[in-house]
Amino acid sequence: MHTQLFQGNLIRLTALDAARDAETESRWTHDAEFMRALSAEPLRPLAPNIVRQKRETAQKDLKPQHLQFAIRPRAEERLLGVAQLARLDWTNGSAWLTLGIADACERGKGYGGEALRLLVNYAFAELNLQRLVAVTADDNPRAIRFFERAGFVSEVRRRQAIHRDGKRWDAVMLGILREEWSAG
User: Fold this and answer.
1) Which of 14, 110, 120, 132 is the most buried (most CB within 10 A)?
2) Nearest to residue 17, comparing CAs of 58, 75, 66, 63?
């Protein structure tokens, strides 16, 4: 039986296109709420040409420890968000998962949930990984619930690991094992 690895009912996972997606990704870097939900890295707005250069460099450097995907509506080319498997540890079968739908008006429509299902399926069924980890700050209970609904379990709490707006937040690490995914 043929399985659609990168396409669901609502969205598809595609390659990021350095030229086509740079303008959209640049706008995202100006959205503090989205960028903080996606990463604990310091915020910095980036011009489209810088985003394009970063993507072109990443495409040339195709490292097997870092796989990035664009999240697009099934029948459209517009960019809804990004998903990635990073820190791939082939020896131990693990990776860190990051996923985000950029525009607030596009959230809550099932795009993120479907992208997560596709990415988790890809990680376990195609890449033969054993475990996935997602990390978020505890100031983002929506993300914590999102991952828990998908079967992720809170594994580690790194106290006061994230600094934002003069406050300290715990980093919450959630994980899912292949056996938990296949039982669900």
Assistant:
1) 132
2) 58
